[in-house]
Structure formats: structure tokens, C-alpha cells
Amino acid sequence: MTAPDIQSRKDGEKICCMTAYDYSSGMIADAAGMDLVLVGDSLGMVVLGHEDTLSVTMDEMIHHVRATSRGVKRALLVADMPFMSYSTVEMALENGGRFLSEGRAKAVKLEGGENVVPQIEALVAAGIPVMAHIGLTPQHVARFGGFKAQGKTLEAAKALVEDARAVEAAGAFCVVLEAIPVEVAELITKAVDIPTIGIGAGNVTDGQILVYHDVLGLFDRFTPKFVRTYVQHGKEAVQALEMYGKDVRSTRFPGDKNTFYLSDEMAEQVRKIKIKKKK
Ligand code: KIV
């Protein structure tokens, strides 16, 4: 998948997107037929255990994007630009370039609307496709006073439409709408010709994205209303490790099938080796 492939799906078949953070989650998302895989800075919370996404660094992101790129063969791989990595056009170009050359991503995502137009224009002009992200942008959580839905007043709804139009005009190939009332998401989706990818924006957007750990039940510190968890892998993993622990303590593991054996003749010789006791 390429950025133009995603862009051409406006009003077409829904675009399925998922986050992934390493080789194995990238491979799983790709095997499941995701169209777009985002190495989100949400990894700060679900992989690195931070309170929010603000402490994620460029070097950490590059490390995870490189690993994920080895597992993703078909989907469009997008790297999320972390907090303060695109504060100026120069920084956006340098860091966006690193994601493509070092990380092997095919596009970048950044948070913001009209305020990041110069950065989007410069990245696109440099040949770096940009996925925009408006609404509840987690890097601005301090300004929002928490993880709260956005666009709930007439003014705020209109401002979101203007943000979406601004990132479209700047050259973004799609835009994430996070935690926005469905009526506002519909208005935005109709107002722009690029696909909207919703997360907590109802079923009116051109595509959906969720966080891998939320979908698979691997992160339960908090689960936003808009998440659907399809399997409880976290609980299953604890049960599996408990079973392993019991087997080790009771010597049921390792069993014959997990054990290497010598030939009878060699085993006999090894048994005869005399070992001096340590003093
Ligand atoms: O960081 C992230 O995972 C994201 C998506 C949830 C859109 O920004």
C-alpha cells in the first residue's frame, strides 16, 4: 500500500488501520490485512509504561519503526513524530527524513491542524507523505486538561473543520480524527477530499484505527470508551505463565520432548566421569 492508494479510498472501501510497535506485532497486523500500520507514540504508554506520550524520544521511535518495518510487507507503514520533534520546519524535515531513511517508514504522522501547516508543506515538498491528526491530540493533553473528547461546542466543531481543510490544503494524504462527536466527524469527512481515519469518531469516517494493545487486551491501565477489545491476551498470557511456573516447580517441565539425550553408549561414558568435589 502507498499513500496514494490510501488517499484513493476516500468514500470507497473502509480503510483498516492498526498500531504496531515491533517485528511481531507488525507481522500480525500485516497478516490480518491491515491497510495501514502506524508505529504510534502511544508506545510510550503501552510498551514503555509512561503516564502519557510526552517522554517518547526520536531515537526510541526510530528503534521501534525499524523493527516494525521488518514485519510489515503489504500495509503502508507510518511513523508517528514524537512530542517536540517537529516544532520547527527544520526539525520536521530532519526527523521526518530519519523516519524514512533509518526507520524505513513510508510516511509520517504529526499532530495538529492550522498550526502545523508549514511543517506538512515542507515534508510533502521533500517527498515525505504526511498523515495529519486532529481532535484529541495526546501530545496536547496538558492543554486539554486530560484525555477529553474535542469539538463539543459549535466554535470548536467549526475550528476542527478548518483544521482538516488546512492539513488537506497543505498536502496531507489523510487525517486522523480522535475523540470527536460523530456528528462533527461526519461534517469533517464531508468537508475534505482526503480520507478521515477515526478513533473515537463514530462509524462515519473513511477508515478506523485502534491501538494494538487495546484490541488484544494487553493494556488495561485505562480503556477509552471507543475501544473494542476482541481478545483478552493479557489475562491469557498470565494464565499461561502461571501454568509454566507450576510445571517448573513440580518438575513437569521440561519433559522428554524438550530434552536432548546422548546415545546410550555416550551416556554410559559420561556417567563414568569422576568429578572432584570443590574444596
Ligand atoms: O499514537 C498513536 O497510537 C496514535 C493513534 C492512536 C492514532 O496516534
Count of separate structural domains: 1
Sheet-strand content, in percent, reads 5-15%
User: With helices defined by DSSP (H or I, 4 residues minimum), what is the helix count?
Assistant: 12
Major β-sheet profile:
8 strands, parallel, barrel
- Give the full name of the CATH homologous superfamily: Phosphoenolpyruvate-binding domains
Computed over alpha carbons, the radius of gyration is 24 Å
Poorly predicted runs are none
Spell out the helices and strands N to C. Answer: HEHEHHEHEHEHHEHEEHHH
Short recap of the structure:
Catalyzes the reversible reaction in which hydroxymethyl group from 5,10-methylenetetrahydrofolate is transferred onto alpha-ketoisovalerate to form ketopantoate. The chain has 279 residues and is of the alpha/beta class. The chain has helices at 3-7, 23-31, 43-46, 58-71, 89-101, 117-125, 141-144, 154-170, 182-191, 212-215, 233-249, 264-272, and strands at residues 15-19, 36-39, 76-80, 107-111, 130-135, 174-178, 196-199, 207-210.
Plain-language structure description:
The chain has 279 residues and is an alpha/beta fold. It has one domain (3-235): TIM Barrel (Alpha-Beta Barrel). Helices cover 41% and strands 14% of the residues. It has twelve helices and eight strands. It has an eight-stranded parallel barrel with strand order 1-2-3-4-5-6-7-8, surrounded by six helices. Helix 2 crosses helix 4. The radius of gyration is 24 Å and the shape is elongated. The relative contact order is 0.11. Bound molecules: 3-methyl-2-oxobutanoic acid.
